């Protein structure tokens, strides 16, 4: 994982703000170990979803969910200083350690759950590969709901390593995020395409 403290501009940003409790960020990912020391003092709430399991601290999806949540909500003074530790967090599990895929319908339900719970930003570490960036009706409608309510969806561009698209990342009004190394070069596994060039960014994605 890249050292967050070395992200250009992050130190000057933290001098102005490390987040605001009035801003709510939802994480649609694996289960999150909220007992991890980096979350001590963080305002995190798990919402009910189809994922019924509890966190497995050694499970792949639990590790991923905890990793992503720590990048956002890791408390300053801990070993993992997050980007916006003072924001409120909603943990909305869509993956479990026994379930690493999610349907568009279930993803749409989770997004709607987050919106109804007051999310202003929704981070989604997942998606479904499509031919031209098309989505099923449920997912398309809930993304429109977010746009209409000024809720920003940030979604993974996909890890297929091709000129290809994932939804919801490829849908209008969604900010797609691809992966780059510490030198700012796109990583080979990260998807790309003209749609992403118009509504996407790259972020540190190496290990």
Largest sheet, spatial ordering of strands: 2-3-1-4-6-8-9
Compressed to H and E, one letter per element, the order equals HEEHEHEEHEEEHE
Task: Catalogue the unreliable spans.
Answer: none
Helical fraction: 25-40%
Strand content: 15-25%
Task: Please outline the major beta sheet.
Answer: 7 strands, parallel
Provide mean pLDDT, rounded: 93
| CA-based gyration radius | 16 Å
- Helix and strand content put the structural class at alpha/beta
Can you count the helices?
5
Shape: globular
* Euclidean distance between termini CA atoms: 4 Å
How many strand elements? 9
Verbal overview:
The strands form 2 sheets. A 7-stranded parallel β-sheet has the order 2-3-1-4-6-8-9, sandwiched between helices. Helices cover 25% and strands 20% of the residues. α3 runs parallel beside α4. By secondary structure, it is α/β, with parallel strands linked by helices.
Quick tags:
207 residues; seven-stranded parallel sheet
Gist?
The protein is of the alpha/beta class and 207 residues long.
Task: Produce the secondary structure layout.
Layout: H1 10-16, E1 24-29, E2 44-46, H2 60-73, E3 88-93, H3 104-116, E4 121-124, E5 128-130, H4 137-148, E6 152-156, E7 165-167, E8 174-180, H5 194-199, E9 200-204
